[in-house]
Amino acid sequence: MAAHLTGWMIRLTIFLLQGVAWLDRTLRPDRAFPRDLPQLLDRRDWLEASLRRGGLLVDGEALVAVAGRQIKQQEAFRSTVAAIDCETRTPAGVTRRLAIFAKLSPVATSLREHAVYILQENAVKETTVYQTLAKAPGFPAARAYHIDVHRPSGGFCLLLERLEAREVPEHEGCPRELAEVAIDAFASLHARHWADETTAARDLRRTPPAVVDWLSRQLQGPDAALFGAMLREAWAADATAPVAIQHADARVGNLLFVEDDSPTAHPCGRRAVFIDWQAARRGKAVFDVAYFLVLSLEPEVRRRHGLELLERYHRALLSHGVADYPLQTLLEDARMSVLLVLGFVTLPLMSAEASTTQANQEGIGALGAAWARRMVAVVEELDLVDVGTRCDIDGAALRDAFRRSNDGAVRDFPVAMADRQAAQAFVAAHGAGLFRPWPQSMDG
To answer: Are the C-beta atoms of 289 and 339 separated by less than 8 Å?
Structure first.
């Protein structure tokens, strides 16, 4: 009954928000900030004033030229991102060239998508991060010069510093040394908001369990009930202590690796900066790390270095003052978080929210082959019997259901067959279980 009532309320809310979306598209009312890139380039006075308030322009410095280009292919629920190049002149005649990023609302392909985008409050979450948390020194995010949101329509405008950075294509996988840099950034982020109960932290709301319960019951197929139970249990576990601020979409595509010459820098001379904070929420800290290890590392790299990366994360937490979180507990939490990762990515959900439209699934599918290969290997290696039993689910049934899921993944992505066979061979030789010591025999 509760799930039925929640589902009815969700459908009604989406219906009403579709009306809001229609009015916004049809009337295009003026906002306090630009709606899109052409408007941003046209409103030079607004841009100049915003950059001055953000501290990028000195007194009397004026914009004399502005150019911009969209740099990311538009996809459902992906914001429009543009590179903006500015030329300025001071009263003394000195000219400067400035480079920034502009991030604006996505142009959804249907009224339903627009409604779901508003419902998810992605722009509100990112605004919360940049207006509050990211102002703290050392926070692993780019500097924001301006951020604003129009809550009723989901309208959004963010001006960010344009960092010179190394980016890793997601399909290539993150190399070990940059994975270590990412792990250090996770620990820094999580430690500063460990058990954080401030107003800003509470503003990063989680999807209510009742909504997750309803969404889990929309799954299709013979294993839908089992996968739904798994998702509900894993989501409940994610809300248990220790809770911190999660980025919640912490894959390598949302990381920039910038040069770092500080005394504490990684030997590779880089530090990690997170972008795209639209999924940020409060939850179990190690979820971010599990998400990164599963989706961003090639199976062989994860297999060989997953445990040492988690140990590195634990040492970094200790160095930041986090206590009473034994390594063994962290490892158990990481394995449970993998269930949630598998649920989020293999089921038609995005961060346990309502991104269930066909167009959004196609947008997510741009990474399909790489993610399928990596998750197929994880499913083969994870001790599903043990993990399932820990969350009061029939572990053997869960193992069999995921094997059927892997059968389907290999049919859809034949390239994943080699990764499945390699994972099966590894388990046959060394037993099931993620994040285990790398066998010394393999180094010979």
So the answer is: no
In this structure, the chain runs to a length of 444
Residues 197 and 316 in one domain: yes
Residues 185 and 65 placed together within one structural domain of the fold: no
pTM passes above 0.85: yes
Residues 256 and 379 in one domain: yes
Q: From its phi and psi, is residue 51 left (phi > 0), alpha (psi between -120 and 50) or beta?
A: alpha
Number of domains in the chain: 2
Give bridge partners of residue 100 from the DSSP assignment. 84, 161
pLDDT in tens for each of the 444 residues of the chain?
Answer: 666 788 888 889 989 999 999 999 899 999 999 999 999 999 999 999 999 999 999 889 999 999 999 986 544 446 789 999 999 999 999 999 999 999 998 776 788 888 888 888 888 899 999 999 999 999 999 999 999 999 999 899 999 999 999 999 998 999 999 999 999 999 999 999 998 877 777 788 888 888 888 888 878 889 989 999 999 999 999 998 889 999 999 999 999 999 999 988 899 999 999 999 999 999 999 999 999 999 999 999 999 999 999 999 999 999 999 999 999 999 999 999 999 999 877 654 333 344 444 444 454 555 778 888 999 999 999 999 999 988 889 999 999 999 999 999 899 889 999 999 999 999 999 999 999 898 877 765
Whether residues 216 and 108 share a domain: the answer is no
With tokens 């609302």, the residue in question is 105
Pairing of strands 281-284, 270-274: unpaired
Per DSSP, 206 falls in state: P
35 three-state secondary structure: coil
Q: Are residues 62 and 196 in the same domain?
A: no
Q: What is the phi/psi pair of residue 14, to 5°?
A: -65, -40
Burial annotation 381-390 (CB, 10 A radius, 16+ → b, else e): bbbbbebbeb
How does strand 165-166 pair with strand 144-150?
unpaired
Determine the structural domain holding residue 104 and report its residue range: 2-161
SS3 389: helix
Residue type at 278?
Answer: Q
Three-state secondary-structure class, residue 193? coil
- Please measure the distance between the N-terminal and C-terminal CA atoms of the chain and give it in whole angstroms: 59
Residue with tokens 């994360």: 313
